[in-house]
Amino acid sequence: MHPQLSDKRIVCREFIQALDACHVNNWARLTGGCNQEKDSLNKCLRKERVERSTRNRTQAKEKRLKTEQAWKELHQDD
């Protein structure tokens, strides 16, 4: 199971529900009948992860710029 599925803010809820509904039928689950649902879920989770990584990267750059500016101001008085 994907670690993102245990997150409190559940993303891709409709894909998760579709995969769970498909897994009710053990025969479909064991013979690859749920592969399309699983692929759709993987694509959705990947998209969410890429968006989250982009947000985190942007925030880290902003934080680094603030830190560098603070150090410049601190050493400017020397």
From TrEMBL:
> BZIP domain location, by residue?
52-66
* Top-rank taxon: Eukaryota
Keyword Transmembrane listed? The answer is no
GO cellular component, alphabetical, reads: mitochondrial inner membrane
Fetch the InterPro entries from UniProt.
bZIP (IPR004827), Cyt_c_biogenesis_Cmc1-like (IPR013892)
Keywords attached to this entry? Chaperone, Disulfide bond, Membrane, Mitochondrion, Mitochondrion inner membrane
Keyword Hydrolase appears in the UniProt entry: no
> Where is the protein found, in the record's own terms?
Mitochondrion inner membrane
Which region ranges are annotated with the description Disordered? 49-78
Report the GO molecular function annotations: DNA-binding transcription factor activity
Q: What is its main location?
A: mitochondrion
So what does this one do?
Required for mitochondrial cytochrome c oxidase (COX) assembly and respiration.
Homology family: Belongs to the CMC family.
| Name of the featured protein | COX assembly mitochondrial protein
Q: Give the species this sequence originates from.
A: Suillus subaureus
